[in-house]
Amino acid sequence: VGTAEALRCAWCGVPHDVASRPLGGRTVCAHCGVATTDPWPTDAQLDVAYEGWYRPGSGRFDAGGDILLRLSRGALSARLDRLAPPGPILDVGCGDGHLVGALRRRGRRAVGLERVSTGPDVIAGVIDDVEGEGTWAAVVFWHSLEHLPAAGHALDIAAKLLAPDGVLIVAVPNAGSWQAKAFGERWFALDLPRHLVHIPARALSRRLARNQIAVERVSHYRGGQVVFGWLHGLVGAFGGYDLYDAIRRSAARRRPMSLGERLAALGMGVVLTPLAAACALVEVAARRGGTVYVEGRRA
Length: 299
Ligand SMILES: [Zn+2]
What we know:
- This protein is an alpha/beta fold.
- 37% of the residues lie in helices and 19% in strands.
- The chain has helices at 43-50, 63-83, 98-105, 151-161, 178-183, 201-210, 226-239, 243-247, 259-285; strands at 21-23, 26-28, 35-37, 89-92, 110-114, 122-124, 136-142, 162-173, 197-198, 213-219, 291-298.
- Strands 6-5-4-7-8-11-10 form a seven-stranded mixed sheet, sandwiched between helices. A four-stranded antiparallel sheet has the order 1-2-3-9, with no helix packed on it.
- A hairpin with a 2-residue loop joins strand 1 and strand 2.
- Helix 7 (226-239) crosses helix 9 (259-285).
- The chain is globular, with a radius of gyration of 19 Å.
- The chain starts with 20 loop residues before the first strand and ends with a strand.
- The structure holds zinc ion.
- Zinc ion (ZN) binds next to loops.
């Protein structure tokens, strides 16, 4: 991955040209509508961006947040186990491996891929190296596709790995959402430089169709973070605070925060929650929610 790649769309591969639109930290492809992070980060910059605060060993959030994370993976594993035909499940960008663990407890063979191995069933590797074309019961990209240097290509490979009737699940921030438009460069889910592509829901559906994946469900709330995206943006706009830092453990913060700042940010968060929830409801109802969750099946 070098500088030259920043000149191409990381989703469709078409070189950026005069029709491409620069947009604070990213460039929108005129061909497919997906934005690529620009300037493209170096490997060293990405290593720094993923170190320390992003995922410290002590957990990212206070106890409640980490428990919620575990419960939501449990629910997803039950759904996957029900939807997918018999066979192994691949979780691309599996983080701490909560989903893989939950699937294994259900008796499913499951493997996770990550930048670094975080457990026995989590392999440090990329989807290009996965073997067994046409044999996987399901492939999951849970808020991971946007982190991949060649996200569109990774989705194509996933489609090939699937067995007939195999299930593909993708959850990504929706670059075509109203919250993305409202907050622009300060949108919570822009998350530069870790997010390398910024995908509108429509572009995702088109790519799945091209891969003979029949979409069975699209949801703008299952992917999570829809209310939080608004809340984070509103607290930032009105108070200048980073609410995401305020809810994280001190070791997991991007910038140090005094207790006073933290309380002010959390207080604003409480006050603005009804407004954020109302904004989220409206954008979800309009099918322009802050995240998009898609379930598809290989034809
Ligand atoms: Zn493109």
